[in-house]
Design goal:
The complex is a heterodimer of chains A (303) and B (268).
Chain A (H helix, E strand, L loop, with lengths): L1 H9 L9 H53 L7 H7 L1 H5 L12 H32 L1 H14 L8 H8 L2 H26 L3 H10 L3 H39 L4 H10 L3 H29 L7
Helix pairs in contact in A: 3-12, 5-6, 5-8, 5-10, 5-11, 7-8, 8-10, 10-11, 10-12, 11-12
Chain B lengths: L3 E14 L2 E14 L3 E5 L6 H9 L6 E6 L2 E2 L9 E2 L11 H13 L5 H14 L15 H14 L4 E5 L7 H18 L2 E6 L2 H7 L2 E5 L7 E6 L8 H4 L3 H16 L2 H6 L3
Parallel strand pairs in B: 3-8, 3-9, 6-7, 7-8
Antiparallel strand pairs in B: 1-2, 1-4, 4-5, 9-10
Helix pairs in contact in B: 2-3, 2-4, 3-4, 6-8
Classes of the chains: A mainly alpha (303), B alpha/beta (268).
């Protein structure tokens, strides 16, 4: 049997195109290929449509159910149409400012975001530095590990009374809560990244006799970048969680305070709109950090 | 005759694990002359990589000394540049930046930016990689990566160039090309080279002397074959060269004698 297979491959491959059998075969092949291409195009279009249509469909169904429930039990949770009616200004004009705390959602979100920016920014710098140190110096890691493992599980709001007592003012207290909440995932992930730097890179650094500073910037930071960004992504999510909660207690301006304030004036529709803002801003923050990570660590994962 | 540049004197290397000592190298002595190409061959696990790492300064000796130009080797350094088996390029840097890192570190204090640039390009030129200078290691083939690894090592202008099974992970065709490149470079810049390999043809083709190591643990130098075939060498011509074939045969014979697997197969 194997000999027969050999004979077939040994037969002349190309015949003149005038051979009727060969032309026939070429036509059939071309038709089959065209079919293949068309099928793959259809699959791609269906795939893309699914990506857009399915979420829309799901949202539509959820809204319809919610609307139905709202109609059936008036006086409870406002239905989507009620929210649209009651919170019209809030939805369509996020930029109004009538002084004091009577501002559009954009300004509240901006205040919260600036707090996150400062607190999280500080946590990122300190977290990466501390994580790099603990990842390099074995005894320091051993010494601090139990402390970090305990502190990282403390919920954001549990820090608030201490920070208020120590700092006495709302703004720095909020910043501290964000800082202390988001630093742990950054420290831990940076540490893991630094500890996992391949021996090859370390050897290259040794042969070149890089100084500690050169090693930190040229080898350690880039090599740990994917891990660092995992930590930053978790951290930014946690700081967004922390800010909304702490603003509820601290008052003033900010999306968290806004939600609490609307609760006190029983404006459920406004709260629902604010919730959507919180969710979407959190989502955008997460994507931003993820995209930045992808950009900065391009090529790092490839080998 | 040329002068000795590197000498290994009664080197013992022991590794300790859980209180158990395993002896890797047992009294290895060797002298390498300036401009010489030396291949070290042996079965895997015989400690030949350990020997190279001793010269690189990455593995400390238990007893004995490695001496480069009258100075004892105590740690790694650019005058003993290594081309690692798995290329070890930094993946976040381009080909150019990988070489530039070494150039900037070694010559940054003495030369201006355009000189550093020229130096980087000159070394990429040597291995014919200037066309891919802006690519990242992930975007080029294994053979190309190894070329860049060689360029990086050469850019340090080492006194001894150390090659740790540099072509082990490459396909036969690429391997042949790179062997030619290394031979050409060696002829051109008269570098002193120490290469680890487990490929007999590669060892003989490239080297002036082939050092054969016995199996570990307690590996020693079993024999040394001097390859006197004239340079530049051509692999096809060498097939007809009786001396070359004789060297090859002697090494194969040595390796067969030290092959555990064969020894088990043949009834004593």
């Amino acid at each position: 049997m194997p000999f027969e297979v050999q004979k077939m491959t040994a037969a002349p491959i190309s015949e003149p195109a005038t051979d009727p059998v060969a032309t026939q075969a070429e036509k059939l092949l071309a038709a089959a290929q065209a079919k293949q291409i068309a099928a793959s195009k259809r699959r791609k279009i269906a795939d893309k449509a699914g990506n857009i249509l399915m979420p829309l469909l799901t949202i539509g169904v959820l809204l319809a159910v919610w609307e139905g429930l709202g109609q059936a039990f008036p006086g409870g949770l406002p239905s989507p149409s009620m929210v649209l009616l009651e919170a019209q200004e809030l939805i369509f004009n996020p930029f109004y400012d009538r002084g004091g705390v009577d501002k559009g959602l954009f300004w509240h979100v901006l205040t919260s975001l600036s707090r996150v920016g400062i607190g999280f920014g500080l946590a990122a710098v300190c977290g990466v530095l501390l994580g790099s140190f603990l990842g390099t110096v074995e005894w320091a890691r051993k010494g601090t590990d139990p402390i970090i493992q305990v502190l990282r599980t403390v919920p954001p709001l549990a820090w608030l009374p201490i920070s208020l007592a120590a700092l006495r003012e709302a703004q720095p207290s909020a910043l501290f809560v964000i800082f202390i909440t988001s630093i742990w995932p950054i420290v831990i992930n940076t540490m893991v990244g630094v500890r996992n730097i391949p021996q090859d890179y370390v050897n290259v650094a040794k042969v070149l006799r890089l100084t500690p500073a050169e090693y930190f910037f040229k080898i350690m930071l880039p090599a740990a970048t994917p891990h660092i960004f995992t930590g930053l992504r978790i951290g930014v999510g946690m700081s967004w969680l922390a800010i909304v909660a702490s603003e509820m207690l601290l008052g003033g301006v900010g999306i968290g305070f806004f939600i609490w304030d609307q609760y006190n004036s029983s404006r459920m529709s406004d709260i629902i709109v604010a919730l959507l803002w919180v969710g979407m801003v959190g989502f955008v923050l997460d994507r931003l950090v993820a995209l930045l990570g992808q950009y900065v660590s391009r090529g790092t994962a490839a080998d | 005759m040329s002068k000795p540049i590197l000498s290994l004197e009664n080197i013992y290397v022991d590794f300790e694990r859980d209180g158990v000592i395993s002896q890797v190298l047992d009294n290895v002595s060797l002298t390498i002359n300036k401009g010489e190409f030396l291949s070290i061959i042996g079965h895997s696990g015989c400690g030949k990589s350990t020997l190279l790492n001793v010269v690189a300064g990455l593995v400390p000796v238990t007893l004995g000394a490695a001496i480069l130009e009258n100075k004892e080797i105590t740690g790694p350094g650019p005058e003993r540049a290594v081309v690692f088996q798995n290329h070890s390029l930094l993946p976040w840097m381009t080909v150019y930046e990988n070489v530039r890192l070494a150039v900037a570190k070694l010559y940054g204090a003495k030369e201006n930016l355009s000189q550093l640039h020229d130096r980087t390009m000159r070394n990429l030129e040597l291995v014919k990689m200037t066309h891919a200078k802006d690519k990242r290691p992930g975007e080029i083939s294994g053979g190309m990566k190894q070329r860049v690894g060689i360029a990086r090592a050469l850019s340090m202008e080492p006194k001894v160039l150390l090659l740790d099974e540099p072509f082990g992970a490459l396909d036969a065709l690429t391997r042949g090309h790179l062997q030619d490149t290394v031979m050409e470079l060696h002829d051109r810049i008269k570098a002193t080279v120490l290469m680890i390999t487990h490929d007999v043809d590669e060892a003989v083709l490239l080297a002036d002397r082939v050092v054969m190591m016995t199996n570990g643990p307690k590996a020693r130098i079993g024999d040394i074959v001097e390859v006197r075939s004239p340079r530049p060498r051509d692999r096809k011509e060498l097939l007809k060269d009786a001396h070359f074939q004789d060297c090859r045969r002697r090494i194969v014979q040595f390796l067969e004698q030290h092959d555990h697997a064969v020894a088990v197969k043949e009834p004593a």
